[in-house]
Amino acid sequence: MRTVSPARFAKMAWECRKRGSTSRLSDLRVVRSFITKLDAPQDAGETRQLRYTITTDAVDRMQDVISADGWDLKSYLQNPVVLWGHDHDLVIGKAIDISRAGNGLDATVQFQPSDMPIVGGWADYAFRSGMTGFIRATSVGFRPLEWDFTEDEERDGDSWFPGIDFKRQELTEFSVVSVPANPEALLAPDATVAGAGGKSLENPGARPDTASIDVARAHLRATRARRFALPA
């Protein structure tokens, strides 16, 4: 199974749709990351277990949405591996519980012991970084089963392709990663990351010029329509 980014999947989907067949997409695995909600129980240091929100139906940076009701977990539960950075040689733990919670999926991860050959150091790094709040992101790998391009103009995106609505998808694995794509996979509210002087970190960026963005997107939509016009 070939692994692709959401952006690559979108490009291939456009090309396949123009040809009138999407069969070549059936063997693709998409990876999508989140800043996660992470719960560290009081006895986590002894159990080496952390609970993550691994996916939600929030709009991500690629303007994609994964339906919380569309997850197929049957195959994954037969081998519930948790990887470091989607590296299949670095199985740092396993999901001992995974369930629907709110608008997404929560999973409890049992990390490998620190003295485990090869992967022990990576597992300990991911576990301790989660405990201290330095690494709080997860990324899901999934096989799209049913999807379509969004008709929501607000999710038209800033690239050549509009966002995708993933309606049904099969979970293949999930990973602890350093850089997320979805803004909703955060540590639990009681796990605060503070900046200098103990103040919570805030986004220092100025509010974007929405009028300029609207003009740019309108131009992009017109250019995209000419470039990727579907046959009547």
Q: Give the proportion of residues in helices.
A: 10-25%
SS elements, strand count? 11
State the secondary-structure class: alpha/beta
Q: Enumerate the spans where pLDDT stays under 50 for 5 or more consecutive residues.
A: 185-208
Give Rg in angstroms: 19 Å
Count structural domains: 1
Determine the number of helices (DSSP H or I, runs of at least 4 residues): 5
Strand coverage percent: 25-35%
> Major sheet, described briefly?
11 strands, mixed
Shape: elongated
Mean pLDDT: 76
N→C terminal distance:
33 Å
Give a description of the structure.
With 232 residues, the protein is an alpha/beta fold. It has one domain (32-194). 23% of the residues lie in helices and 34% in strands. The protein has 5 helices and 11 strands, in the order βαββαβββαβββαββα. α1 (6-19) links the parallel β1 and β2 (28-35).
Reconstruct the topology from this structure.
Blueprint: E1 2-4, H1 6-19, E2 28-35, E3 38-39, H2 44-47, E4 49-56, E5 65-66, E6 71-72, H3 74-78, E7 81-84, E8 87-101, E9 104-111, H4 120-132, E10 137-149, E11 164-177, H5 210-227
